[in-house]
Amino acid sequence: MLTPDVVTAAQKNYQFTPATDGPDLSAQLQPFAPAKAAWQQSDAFTEQVRTSRYSGTILLDPDSRTVWLDVIGG
């Protein structure tokens, strides 16, 4: 979970759009996901967070301050 100031800075510094799909959660992870999440995506935010060493998806739900990382090392 991100702090409110980190979410505010991310929304100010990156252009987010609604994610086309939410995270593909296993049954074990579903209880930890925020209810009614409005997942957002930003290519620039994803590139900054995951760096060039990794590939994958990063989503943000601003209301719950939750970040979903689905990345693998390269």
Describe this entry's structure for a reader.
- This protein has helices at 4-13, 43-50, and strands spanning 17-18, 40-41, 54-61, 66-73.
- With 74 residues, it is an alpha+beta fold.
- It has a two-stranded antiparallel ribbon with strand order 1-2. Strands 3-4 form a two-stranded antiparallel ribbon.
- The longest helix has 10 residues, at 4-13.
Q: How is this structure best summarized?
A:
The chain is an alpha+beta fold and 74 residues long. The chain has two helices and four strands; from the N terminus they run αββαββ.
Characteristics:
single chain; 74 residues; alpha+beta; two-stranded antiparallel ribbon; 2 helices; 4 strands; 24% helix; globular
List the secondary-structure elements in sequence, H or E: HEEHEE
Number of strands: 4
Strand order of the largest sheet: 1-2
Provide the gyration radius in Å: 12 Å
Coarse structural class: alpha+beta
Portion of residues within helices: 10-25%
Q: Judging from the principal axes of the Cα atoms, what is the shape?
A: globular
Average pLDDT metric: 91
